[in-house]
Amino acid sequence: MRTRRHLTALLLAAALAPPPAFAADAPCYRGVNLSGGEYGDRDGVYGTNYTYPSEDTIGYFAEKGMSIIRLPFRWERLQPALGGRLDEDELKRIKDTVGLIRKHGMAVLLDPHNFGYYDKVQVGTAPATDAAFADFWARLAVEFANRDGVLFGLMNEPHDIKATDWLDAANAAIRSIRAVGARNLILVPGTAWSGAHSWEQDVIGGANGTVMLGVRDPLDFYAYEIHQYLDIDSSGTHPTCEGAGAAAEAIAGVTAWLKNNHKRGFLGEFGAAADKDCMSGLTEIYATMSDNGDAWLGWSYWAAGEWWPADEPFNVQPQKGTERPQMRLLANSAKAKTGACASVKPAGK
Q1: 3-state class of 248 per DSSP?
Q2: CA–CA separation, 332 vs 240, rounded Å?
Q3: Do the domain assignments include residue 16?
Q4: Under DSSP, is residue 201 helix (H, G, I), strand (E, B) or coil?
Q5: Extended beta strands in 23-181, E state
Q6: pLDDT tens digits, residue range 260-299?
Q7: So which residues are the catalytic ones?
Q8: Which of 8, 135, 153 is nearest to 82 (CA)?
Q9: Within-domain flag for 75
């Protein structure tokens, strides 16, 4: 009977050699999600219903060797009316947070944490049309165009939208970002929560692994954002890791897919509790990505942030000076030899 590790090895061995231009070192972006900016409804009050990370929190993760922060926020608060101007106060809060992250030497991944919706309207459906989504990204891209260390994540976990329809929306956003002159790295999710475990399955409207090969970027400067949790149903809602083996195989499978298609990936969300099975699964996932820096640009663990519940088992926010076991594993993984993130640039830049 073949072992799981043997199957993992077979998946990776089946992949084609990467293009020589891709880095061979461990992924350069290693970090965490700092939750808080996505809390509450669109009319939430800053400091009461939602928050952004403090400099103390940002500094803590910089000291632990993290090199990127994924920064969630709500589309509706930043752009209160589709097709309208960005809210100046909310934009300033995001810009100030980005400034603090960059001050501490880390990159930042901007993350409209909306699951493929504006309010309760799905992207691609009026009034949240592809054109409206593209307009939002044009306005946001202008504000951060070509800033070193600022990456654009198109959308957190689109779901219940056909892969073919999501591809149209993603390509519309990419066109608008490039049209305003922004050459920033773009991270493109798939539908079905962008899960690694279902990447090559037809969940709704085609498999991400087939349909999302239709991403079109004039600069060819994008990567796929993948998510994967280690619990039994890959949802990230359970404190135990019966799905750790399946999660490790899923990451190995996506690694092979990336290599076969000469693409790059970023593991935007993954997380687990601190029990033995969880830690073992996390270690195996880190090892796969670290050994395949030509395919993986990096990862960001879910989650941390001052308002993230202290008793939440995935939490790596320090509590009264106590470091979580998952954080020790993250910090150790961040010590691996890495290529320079500054070298991750579009052709000709």
Answers
A1: helix
A2: 23
A3: no
A4: coil
A5: 29-34, 68-73, 107-112, 117-118, 121-122, 150-153
A6: 999 999 999 999 999 999 999 999 999 999 999 999 999 9
A7: 157, 269
A8: 135
A9: yes
